[in-house]
Amino acid sequence: MPNDFKFFVRLVLLGLSGSGKSAAGNTILGQAMFESNSESFTAATQKCEKKKAMVDGKRVSVVDTPDWFNSEQTPDEVRAQISSCIALSSPGPHAFLLCVPLDQPAKTELQALSALAKVFGPEAVQKHTMVLFTYADRLRESGKAGGKSVEEYIASQRGDLVKLVEKCTDRFHVMEKGQGWRQKKNVAELLEKVEQTVKEAGGQCYSSPAFQEVEDRVRQRQLEIVREKKGIKQETALQAGLVGAWRGGGGKKHYL
Ligand SMILES: Nc1nc2c(ncn2[C@@H]2O[C@H](COP(=O)(O)OP(=O)(O)OP(=O)(O)O)[C@@H](O)[C@H]2O)c(=O)[nH]1
Ligand SMILES: [Mg+2]
């Protein structure tokens, strides 16, 4: 399992439709790379997508996902999406970020965490998942926090969110949407928390038999490509030799 966090950061965004996954991805990458749309009544993100950018001197790749937890997709469709997510975040994500809106009650998110543990194993939740709170701006505007900081508001008024955070071994981050200096600082703090997560997980990215299988398949394919290329080179060399042989054939035969 690679310990490559120094240079690469692989993140997977999870959460219900409209929870702000794509918007968070855009904020993390510092540019509008994922489609994020409030106008549509259907889910904006229909399939897993990966985007990359240099952030704070690191190559950050973000896999955005559709809503697996509350969607109308068939189990087969969800399975296909999960396979795609695994392939896109190979050799394994450093962190799963579960997007949870602060301005609404968390009704199905606990089930979402159980589903995550079922698909990727309990370690995925305990060691590699962070709750990414979204819509902090709306919470502030609503006045529900009553002048408290978001953290104080969660601790004093939101038992539902505290439970989620506890399931993720107390890991959470409050996302500030947008692209100014404040957001950049916020993203840097998020990446520091991800680094801490990786340290606590023994310096490794998340990996499970499913991820390992994809990794093995990718390696196998790379080997095949190298072999194919070598084969082509040998063939070309052989052809060049033949051409040379024909050309240099005493001026008798000039087939090419
Ligand atoms: N005010 C505010 N709006 C947000 C925030 N996060 C997302 N939005 C907006 O809410 C809408 C939905 O956000 P998305 O990021 O597309 O949500 P999603 O989780 O990707 O949704 P699906 O792709 O449908 O699963 C978009 O118009 C976003 O701009 C936030 O923190 N604050
Ligand atoms: Mg989306």
UniProtKB/TrEMBL annotation:
Residue ranges of every copy of the AIG1-type G domain listed in the record? 6-215
InterPro entries membership? G_AIG1 (IPR006703), GIMA/IAN/Toc (IPR045058), P-loop_NTPase (IPR027417)
Q: Which GO terms describe its molecular function?
A: GTP binding
Q: Which PANTHER family match?
A: GTPASE IMAP FAMILY MEMBER 6-RELATED, GTPASE, IMAP FAMILY MEMBER-RELATED
Name the residues that span the membrane: none
Q: What is this protein called?
A: AIG1-type G domain-containing protein
> So which residues are the signal peptide here?
1-24
Q: Say which domain of life the source belongs to.
A: Eukaryota
Its family? Answer: Belongs to the TRAFAC class TrmE-Era-EngA-EngB-Septin-like GTPase superfamily. AIG1/Toc34/Toc159-like paraseptin GTPase family. IAN subfamily.
The UniProt keywords, alphabetically, are: GTP-binding, Nucleotide-binding, Signal
The record's listing under Pfam families reads: AIG1
